[in-house]
Write a structure and sequence with these properties.
The protein is of the alpha/beta class. Among the domains are: 57 residues, Phosphorylase Kinase, domain 1, CATH 3.30.200.210; 235 residues, 3-Layer(aba) Sandwich (Dimethylsulfoxide Reductase, domain 2), CATH 3.40.228.10; 134 residues, Beta Barrel (Barwin-like endoglucanases). The protein has 26 helices and 28 strands. The strands form 8 sheets. Strands 5-4-17-16-15-6-7 form a 7-stranded mixed β-sheet, with helices on one face. The chain has a 6-stranded mixed beta barrel with strand order 23-27-24-26-25-28. A 4-stranded parallel β-sheet has the order 11-10-9-13. A hairpin with a 2-residue loop joins β4 and β5. α3 crosses α21. The longest helix is centred in the first third of the chain and has 19 residues.
């Protein structure tokens, strides 16, 4: 007789955090659907969520480590893999020092409980400042601007989607991406509910994306000019007078007059030609935002991946403030994360603030931001001889050869390393260079809690997922892989005990909380708390998560709040616990030295001078044939690593170069034409897709494709290879304030291939 059960878990494939109901028969997954009882997603699921089954059973997914022998990857035992890692890392560190080891942390780590806790342990064990991550190819500008304004990079205001009456969206396409730095299952449904209650959606985008098609108004802006548009909105609001600030917001602001003065050159008339949006429209949008019952401005990846990413991110919140919509119902609000964050710990309302530049990269002299350097600088750090040259790389859950600028240069650099180890499920475009590949278990074999993403949720919720399927015999959990790698990097050898690393990680976080006077366990005995946590028998991230929940804003404080949250209580609520809608958090959310919102950080005020110079530029040069390249997302795609699932890639080719009909006619291009796209750094050939959904002078390629290289083991992806847009993106183009790569607005020349 078969054993049938229904398991629930949160989908870990994107930022939406949707609940899944998974039917399991004799430890075999038979069906996945949306969890109708999930407190947050209420049954919503996108096409990716149901493919966790296919991902788990994918024959190309690695189950055992691989070691490169004579240029060929071969499956080996875990013991053999650990010896190879120990030999390789130890040799590089002994010969060249710890600064010769670089790290790259990929995007999946943000959706991964083990990585979120133990990646930090790994970085500390390696002891090198040569740190890179996917953060500098997507969202870091928003964290930098939030840190400068509010004192914490966790203090990112999110639109109060369920209560707003007006939503202005820039550089985002939540109908395809499900949202970013705004965790909201069924983002499209929440937009449509807003429209049903009389609300308005305005989308600013060079493309008429699926989200723009649903909007009440689409503004086809020129790529890379979002900061100018936002500056003109703020200029209009300041010119009209900022009475809307009143006592509620005014009491928490410093620097208003300085910002108003600095924005004076950016009148709607001044920016109209460069942005492609007329002055009358800019003024009208500004006043609609101010006069609406409630409103929020939401800017995402498209605004961050520009040369003014940090300034645009800052101006989003300047407009939210100048319209009176920050920290109020229906506006842009600060979540209260259940497991805590930087803005729930320490003294409420005041702190050390945020700064960058505590070091500079060796070659390009790029300032440190959030403890890392720009991903676009990896190649030069590997190529350039001298003290601190990167000789080894540790890559965790990332595929930078497809996801970072000038991929051809980076691939060549990785091939010249003395040693490389990848923690990855696949032998892909990046891990093919690794001497050792360490595969983590599938997503269905791990516990899960969205430790990072729930920090940016549109409701204060918590969902914990136990593993759906057991680990295979002798297979380490992901946290054990990262802990062992940490121990080896620290010099403890291939036989190091991972439990000791786990204990040290827990001791550190407990000790920090007991010394924090704002904590609900301040002054308690460290060992007493560790003993209490260990009674459950948990190890690794689950034990640490239990502690974080118990000392979090809704936690039990180890008995000081009798009805407070523990991991046991969360496990007993398999569909999650909803702690309610977002509430006003000013001023306690602030961690700035002044105890106020620092509206005029000097680095951002100075960057407006650079922005003003942009007013003299144009991004369309139709006569010369030069165009600008932007990216795009698709609902069935998640960066590069979901392209080996047949159901997600089958059908019409999605890796096309989209082009406006007027440009196609001018260039002599028709729907059957193959075109050559050239930038400063590279060339790709792609099939063209002619559509009026993109503005003239702009072309678009999706991100994360290009699976035709040799040495990979992703058979489905190779059959749907597409072209790599990052062969064209320029590693020299970086937002100077955050180090973020410029992936939108890349100058290109497009030519038909006859």
């Amino acid at each position: 007789m078969s054993n049938k059960r229904l398991a629930t878990r949160t989908c870990p494939l994107c930022e939406a955090g949707c609940g899944l109901a998974i039917t399991v028969v004799d430890d075999e997954v038979t069906h996945i659907r949306g969890d109708l009882d999930d407190v947050f997603s209420k049954g919503f699921i996108c096409p990716k969520g149901s493919t966790l089954k296919q991902l788990h059973y994918d024959p190309d997914r690695l189950r055992m480590p691989m070691v490169k022998l004579d240029g060929v990857h071969r499956q080996v035992s875990w013991a053999e893999a650990w010896r190879a890692v120990a030999d390789g890392l130890t040799n590089v560190i002994n010969n060249h020092g710890r600064e010769s080891v670089g790290t790259y942390l990929g995007n999946p780590g943000a959706h991964n409980l083990s990585a979120l806790i133990f990646n930090r342990v790994l970085l500390q064990a390696i002891g090198s400042r040569q740190r890179f991550s996917a953060s500098t190819v997507d969202q870091i500008p928003k964290q930098v601007s939030s840190g400068l304004m509010f004192g914490s990079v966790s203090s990112v205001p999110v639109p109060d989607l369920d209560r707003t009456r007006y939503l202005l969206v820039l550089g985002a396409n939540p109908y395809e991406s499900n949202g970013s730095l705004c965790t909201a299952p069924d983002f499209p449904g929440r937009i449509e509910a807003m429209q049903s209650r009389g609300g308005k959606l305005v989308v600013v985008d060079p493309r008429r994306s699926r989200t723009a098609a649903q909007s009440d108004e689409w503004l086809p802006i020129r790529p890379g000019t979002d900061a100018l548009f936002l500056a003109a909105l703020a200029n209009t609001l300041a010119e009209d007078g900022l009475q809307v600030l009143g006592e509620r917001l005014g009491a928490y602001l410093v620097g208003v007059d300085e910002v108003v003065a600095a924005l004076s050159p950016f009148t709607p008339e001044a920016v109209a030609t460069t942005t492609g949006i007329d002055a009358q429209t800019i003024r009208r949008i500004a006043r609609e935002l101010r006069d609406s019952e409630s409103a929020a401005v939401y800017g995402r990846i498209g605004t961050c991946t520009s040369s003014f990413g940090t300034t645009a991110s800052w101006l989003v919140d300047v407009v939210n403030i100048f319209t009176g919509n920050l920290d109020r119902v229906g506006g842009a609000m600060f979540p209260l994360p259940v497991a805590g964050s930087d803005n729930t710990r320490g003294t409420a309302g005041v702190g050390k603030g945020f700064r960058t530049g505590r070091g500079f990269s060796r070659v390009g002299r790029h300032p440190e931001v959030l403890g890392e350097y720009p991903a676009a600088a990896m190649a030069e750090e590997i190529e350039t001889p001298g003290d601190g040259q990167i000789r080894a790389m540790v890559v965790v859950g990332g595929n930078p050869v497809l996801s970072t600028p000038n991929s051809v240069r980076l691939a060549k650099a990785l091939g010249d390393l003395e040693f490389m180890v990848s923690v990855d499920m696949y032998l892909n475009e990046t891990s093919r260079f690794a001497d050792v590949i360490l595969p983590p278990p599938s997503q269905l074999q791990r516990s899960h809690y969205d430790l990072a993403l729930l920090t940016f949720a549109v409701r204060n919720v918590a969902n914990y997922s136990e593993p759906v399927l057991p680990l295979a015999p002798e297979t380490p959990d992901e946290w054990e892989i990262l802990a062992k790698l940490s121990a080896i990097a620290a010099g403890l050898g291939a036989d190091a005990d991972v439990s000791a690393v786990d204990d040290l990680a827990l001791d550190s976080i407990v000790r920090g909380a007991t010394k924090d006077s704002s904590s609900n366990v301040f002054g308690r005995d460290d060992r007493e708390l560790v003993t209490e946590l260990s009674k459950s028998g948990r190890r690794g991230p689950d034990r640490i998560l239990d502690f974080m929940l118990r000392v979090g804003p809704f936690g039990d404080g180890f008995g000081s709040v009798p009805d407070g949250l523990t991991l046991d209580k969360l496990i007993a609520a398999p569909h999650g616990i909803d702690f309610g809608a977002l509430e006003s958090r000013l001023p306690e959310v602030l961690r700035t030295p002044s105890g106020k919102i620092e509206l005029a950080p000097s680095s951002l005020i100075k960057d407006l001078v650079r922005l003003e110079a942009r007013l003299a530029e144009t991004t369309e040069k139709a006569g010369s044939g030069q165009m600008v390249l932007v990216g795009r997302r698709h609902l069935r795609s998640n960066n590069s690593w979901m392209h080996n699932i047949e159901v997600l890639v089958k059908g019409k080719n999605r890796c096309t170069l989209q082009m406006n009909p007027d440009d196609a006619q001018r260039l002599g291009v028709n729907p059957e034409t193959l075109v050559r796209v050239k930038s400063r750094v590279g060339v790709v050939d792609a099939p063209v897709e002619i559509t009026d959904s993109i503005r003239r002078g702009v072309v678009s390629l999706p991100h994360g494709w290009g699976h035709s290289v040799e040495g990979t083991q992703t058979r489905v992806a190779k059959l749907h290879a597409g072209v790599n847009s990052n062969v064209l993106t320029d590693e020299r183009e970086i937002d100077p304030l955050s180090g973020n790569s410029v992936l939108n607005g890349i100058p290109v020349v497009v030519e038909p291939i006859f």
